[in-house]
Fold Cyclin, Nterminal domain containing protein.
Amino acid sequence: MEPGRTPMSPSVHGKTEQQKRALRVRACIVTIQKAGQELKLPQMVIATAATFFHRFFACNPLHEHDRLVMVMACLFLASKVEEVPKKARDVILATHYVARKEVLHADSAEFARFREDVIRHERLLVTNISLAVDHPYHYLVSLAKAVDPVNKDLIQISWNFVNDSLRTEVCLNYDPRLIAGAALYLSVKCLGFNITRNGAPATLFEVINMPKALIEEVSSQILDLYETAPSLASMRGDGSGSGASTGSTHMPAEDGECKAPVPEYHKQNHRLWKRNVAQGDHYRYRRDEQQKKRKQRV
């Protein structure tokens, strides 16, 4: 990464204006996904936050708003909408650490400014976009089971493709069921899966009853993501892609959730807390000793 840049400000040298915008939006969605993982939010909350971000900037210029603050506001609002509320403090600290790789202290003036801006941007979201979101995940499992009711790899890889599709704008332009169908189509291609229907060879489009042209159109837009970000490993389906890096973005496991490591900003705050407690004990001890001496003198 170039000096002075963060994940929120990717290199855009030599790109067209449209490509620059796409890269900046993508970087923001990556921050939403990683911060959501730090906060151990369910994938539905992360997907809702990403959708809110896309919706807002579909009708508002990127340069008119602080993108980091908007990322925080989207996560904060999405956690409320999906009924998994997180404190503004936790959202701000986690997102700031993910984006800037430095600990923000909750008692600092900078934190107070972030909190004020996040509340203001949350109001902007509520007044400017629809908060009703229907995600492809709701359709994906039933579609995959229609193709093969026992193949878990098919569902998992499709789930990863849906996660990665959040970094594109397909959620703005296509029905969520169609996005689920496109993710399933890409998974079938990756696995070299042979589809049958009533014992006879069949196409995916026949089984899920969706138009081939639209499925291929959405699939093409998702695949464009990997041309500019070849490190995404969802194509391999090995669980190492952007959509399968931790338990929060992984398809829910039947045997329980994965345990994520303790976020670094929590460790830092815990160390500060222990230090403050130790100092407090020391001060209380000195105070008690002074009170005893005063009583003895009396």
